[in-house]
Design goal:
Layout: E1 5-10, H1 14-24, E2 30-36, H2 39-49, E3 53-57, H3 65-75, E4 80-84, H4 88-100, E5 104-107, H5 114-117, H6 121-131, E6 163-168, H7 172-179, E7 190-194, H8 200-211, E8 215-218, E9 229-232, E10 239-245, E11 248-254, H9 266-277, E12 281-285, H10 294-302, E13 306-310, H11 320-327, E14 332-334, H12 336-350
Helix pairs in contact: 3-4, 4-8, 9-10, 10-11
Keywords: Chemotaxis, Cytoplasm, Hydrolase, Phosphoprotein
Enzyme class: hydrolase
GO molecular function, one term: protein-glutamate methylesterase activity
């Protein structure tokens, strides 16, 4: 980089500010512009010094992080990384912050391991600095749901779409909020790996479920995947796999080491879908940092499945889709606004239904 990334740290905890600053300063491309204990102190620094990135605590006195984030996005847009405690309340607020335009969220550390625990903030801050400010998602309520019966895999149509697999990371909350509410109740089962800590995926599933015609839940081990449902991999502890059991597709939560630094891993999900459903699957790789998902999406394409990558212009971070394109894993590159229609079109055309 030509110049250092100037970061403002906003946290009501003096210890928290010190941990974050010490962790970020380990990278020579990052400079701590300043620290603030509340939004009013932070406001003065923002007006005077124009930071490149802000890390913002969710819970603070005088004005909470969400209120301050909304003002930043409206009055002086700057990339913001939310730092949130691993509690139900913290996770709910973090998801709301992402929908307001925060670049990403990072779990708050505590104790003597705090500095090392914040090391993962470094690539997020660097990506935020070069990506600009995330757009607000256009989350829209869907029509009421209706029940849809479970369909077996075979059904006499070898190429029928029986499952849709989606992988995402940074910017994925916005992308999922655009795609899922547009899907009809008759859509094939949707399985999703979104890079997030534990509890965050619980809050994400609950929020998306309120917006969608399809049912959105966290995946549970051993459940049969049903049309009109989307299943999000629980954050932190397991990889989400899909298996074929007695002619139907089942979710499996499997312990394992992180893949490419992630658990759950998009590669793990996509590779399992390639094995379980082959040409009867559609894979979608969305916005995110790194390469997770590229190899798995290639496995899906090589197994005969259809594959989609989100276009660079609609990604918050064009990392994962770029890696998949470079690997030859992407059949179609589509803008975020066109992905839901493509999924519906794939299913209708390949099951013999016409528009």
């Amino acid at each position: 980089m030509n110049k250092k990334i100037r970061v403002l740290i906003v946290d009501d905890s003096k210890t928290g500010r010190a941990f974050i600053a010490a962790a970020l300063e380990r990278d020579p491309d990052i400079e701590i512009l300043g620290t603030a204990g509340d939004p009013f102190e932070a406001r003065d620094i923002i007006m005077r010094d124009q930071p490149d990135v802000i890390t913002l605590d969710v819970e603070m006195p005088n004005m909470n992080g969400l209120q301050f984030l909304e003002k930043i996005m409206r009055l002086r847009p700057i990339p913001v990384v939310m730092v949130s405690g691993l509690t139900v309340r913290g996770a709910d607020v973090a998801i709301e912050a992402l929908q307001l335009g925060a670049f990403d969220c990072f779990p708050k550390a505590s104790g003597v391991s705090g500095i090392d625990a914040y090391a993962g903030l470094i690539p997020i801050v660097k990506a935020a600095a070069v990506s600009g400010v995330a757009r607000r998602p256009s989350l829209r309520p869907a029509m009421p749901r209706r029940d849809v019966p479970v369909r077996p895999i075979a059904d006499g149509r070898a190429d029928a779409v029986e499952i849709i697999a989606i992988g995402a990371s940074t910017g994925g909350v916005e992308a999922l909020g655009e795609i899922l509410p547009s899907l009809p109740e008759t859509i094939a089962p949707v399985v999703i790996t979104q890079h997030m800590p534990a509890l965050f995926t619980t809050s994400l599933a609950a929020r998306l479920n309120r917006l969608c015609r399809i049912e959105v839940t966290e995946a549970r081990d051993g459940i049969i995947l049903q049309p009109g449902h989307a299943y999000i991999a629980p954050g932190g502890q397991h990889h989400l796999h899909v298996r074929q059991v007695a002619g139907r597709l089942m979710a499996s939560l499997d312990a394992g080491e992180p893949i490419s630094g992630h658990r759950p891993s998009v590669d793990e999900l996509f590779s399992s879908v390639a094995r379980a459903a082959g040409r009867r699957a559609v894979g979608v790789i969305l916005t995110g940092m790194g390469r997770d998902g590229a190899a798995g999406l290639l496995a899906m394409r090589e197994a005969g499945g259809r594959t989609i990558g989100q276009s660079e212009g609609t990604c918050v971070v064009y990392g994962m889709p770029r890696a998949a394109v470079e690997l030859g894993a992407v059949e179609k590159t589509l803008s975020l606004g066109n992905i839901a229609n493509a999924l519906i079109s794939f299913e209708m055309s390949e099951t013999g239904v016409t528009h």
